[in-house]
Write a structure and sequence with these properties.
single chain; mainly alpha; two-stranded antiparallel ribbon; 5 helices; 53% helix; 5% strand
């Protein structure tokens, strides 16, 4: 491992993907597309537990208007999807969304991390746009500075 690798604090993936009209025909297609696009799953993913966890989370937040706990999600996974899993796996997948700053943990409950620039406090799209844009700008500025210094180091 290179020494600078220890400087990595977080990472996010934005994949360039086609968005054909038929993706919008079903909630499951949209969920899979978003999970792929955001790097929440790999393109070779064969297990569907992540999809089920996100489906249950979003059902609680957007359909039932409830901020769930991991226990709520665990129970609903068994009820709705007939999936038995561990709280640890649920937390792992929810932490992926927390790392993207799309959701946050408020005590034991999970909720949308509201965009500071929007009146839509429960909008996952507004949240994503605000927090990812902020991180992209910060990291681009660091890269810009580093690339300028790199070029100067080679020009000496």
């Amino acid at each position: 491992m290179i020494p600078e690798a220890e400087l990595i604090r977080n990472e996010f993936i934005i994949r360039e993907m086609d968005f054909p009209e038929n993706i919008s025909f079903t909630k499951n297609s949209l969920l899979r597309w978003c999970c792929l696009s955001l790097g929440l799953i790999s393109k070779n993913e064969t297990r569907d537990k992540a999809f089920a966890i996100f489906d249950v989370l979003f059902t609680f937040i957007f359909t039932k208007k409830i901020n769930p706990t991991t226990i709520d999600i665990l129970e609903e996974l068994e009820k709705k999807h007939k999936i038995k899993t561990s709280e640890k796996l649920i937390r792992y997948h929810l932490n992926r969304l927390i790392n993207l700053k799309i959701i946050l943990r408020d005590g034991i409950k999970y909720k949308i991390n509201p965009s500071p620039n929007s009146d839509k406090r429960n909008s996952i799209a507004e949240s994503y746009k605000a927090w990812i844009t902020k991180q992209v700008i910060i990291e681009m500025d660091k890269n810009f500075t580093a690339l300028e210094k790199l070029q100067k180091a080679y020009e000496k």
